[in-house]
Amino acid sequence: MSQKVCVIGLDCAAPELVFDLWSDLLPNLRKVRDRGVWGPLTSTIPPITVPAWMCMMTGKDPGALGIYGFRNRRDHSYDGLQFASSRLVHEPTLWDILGEHGKRSIALGVPLTYPPKPMNGLLIGDFLAPDTRSDYTYPPELKVEIEEVVGDYLFDTREFRTEDKERLLADIYAMTRQRFALARHLATTKPWDLFIMVEMGPDRIHHAFWKYFDPQHPKYVAANPLEHAIRDYYVALDAEIGSFLSVLEPDTRLLIVSDHGAKRMDGGICFNEWLIQEGYLVLKEPVTEVSKFSPALVDWSRTRAWGDGGYYGRLFLNVEGREPNGIVPASDVESLRTELTARLEALGDEHGKSIGTRVFRPEQTYSAMRNVAPDLIVYFGDLHWRSVGSIGHGTVWTHDNDTGPDDANHAQEGIFLMANAGAAPLGDGQRRADLSIYDIAPTVLDAFGITPPPGMGRQAIGAAPKPDDAYTAEEEAELARRLEDLGYL
After folding, report:
1. Beta strand 5-10 pairing with 194-199
2. CB 38 within 8 A of CB 432
3. Which of 43, 295, 328, 405 is 20 to 30 A (C-alpha) from 186?
């Protein structure tokens, strides 16, 4: 019987919850762990859904992909942004490589697979697909079968940054049950060599409910009615995983992974407010009400730097000869980056206490820098604080998220478990401490006896990507609407 490989992706699944706190409540995950190899999985810098899953699927880092987040600068203009989707992925994925070797794959919900591209197998697009009226599958007619099996397919929960927690809980459970029902159907009725699925539920429940269970969270209230919401979801998720594993052939090589972990969010650093206060960013007129940052508000003739919001901060310099109205001489870029790094890492909380901010230089972090990389990457509070890009707060520190309620940020380490689905043990529960998200693609190919191509994994980068495909205005607008609905913009 030929080798099969199944990868179950759990977006944001946290190692301290799976391996430690609730290990005894998760018998199916524990069984995989005890029969194989497991450990924390170091994620990308930054550890965010986009681009981390596609880094995992290609073995290439964000710089090599040229994708640094949901939104990316299209060029060095101030307002030229493009939204990440499959159109920006120009490196071969696992299913591309396996297809060249005659292997069939099923990819279900892997981020950055919408719009779907042709492949040797089946593909169901990710949570950025707008709705089921779109062409979200390959082949297109597959969506008719999906509707017959599960009804109206749920790409994601409705808005997860909400105070309507009961509705959100119902959405998360419904989405997870439906995804695994579809996975069981596809795995048992379609031919495949590689099966990959990604479930978004852990990410959504962490962001919405972390403050209810974590006593270290600044907004935690003991004995609240939602204290066990995350725990109970993990128990239900473990049961779904067990049901899915029961339909796999016993000698299927199984990997259970997450793209990053989670940690409490202590607050937000108003990145552009700080840059304004320190004289790096100058507005044409003062802004007194909380507003989205807009290049139209900036006096670029006096601005040296500006920042972007999100789970991490991206800082850009206004460089002479690079940006349209750049004023920072190229000869001053390094000294300015050094100055900003020192000052950002020294920035404490509102009481002056150190929060442990970390700043990275892309050229020291990535194997290449394609498209427009940020000049600095900032982990405020080592990711315990979010980067808030909006302006008009009147303060550098905030404890309310500007895009809606959010209790958690992302952590650098996710989870990794590998075993055989039910045959002889692959290992004896060996814990590894050296695992990287870039190891996944070579590991999958190795199971098929396929040598990874040059540049995959933690090796030298390979060939340059093809030029970016152009988005239509309608596609840009639709992606913007979807991200706005999700609270990312």
Report:
1. parallel
2. yes
3. 43
> For residue 464, what pLDDT is reported?
33
How far, in Å, CA of 212 to CA of 228, rounded? 8
Closest CA to 78 of 301, 330, 361: 301
Neighbours of 353 (CB within 10 A): 8
Contact 254, 8 (CB under 8 A): yes
Six-digit token string for 316:
């850009």
* Entry field: residues in the chain: 489
pTM: 0.93
Query: Are the C-beta atoms of residues 15 and 415 closer than 8 Å to each other?
Result: yes
State the residue for tokens 């809980």. Answer: 169
- How many other CB atoms are found less than 10 A from the CB of residue 436? 16
Distance from first CA to last CA of the chain, Å, rounded? 48
Per residue in 182-237, pLDDT (tens digit) is: 999 999 999 999 999 999 999 999 999 999 999 999 999 999 999 999 999 999 99
Ramachandran assignment for 49, one of left (phi > 0), alpha (psi -120 to 50 degrees), beta (any other): alpha
Conformation bin of residue 109: beta by default, left when phi > 0, alpha when psi is -120 to 50: left
Domains and CATH numbers, the chain: 5-264+410-486 (3.40.720.10), 267-398 (3.30.1360)
CA distances for 12 relative to 81, 200, 478, angstroms:
26, 8, 25
Q: Which of 455, 457, 430 is nearest to 443 (CA)?
A: 457
pLDDT digits over 241-287, tens only?
999 999 999 999 999 999 999 999 999 999 999 999 999 999 999 99
| DSSP per-residue string spanning 59-116 | T--HHHHT--SSEEESSSSSS-EEE-SGGG--SPPHHHHHHHTT--EEEES-TT--S-
Task: Write down the residue that tokens 């403050």 correspond to.
Answer: 211
Nearest CA to 327 out of 360, 289, 300 is that of 300
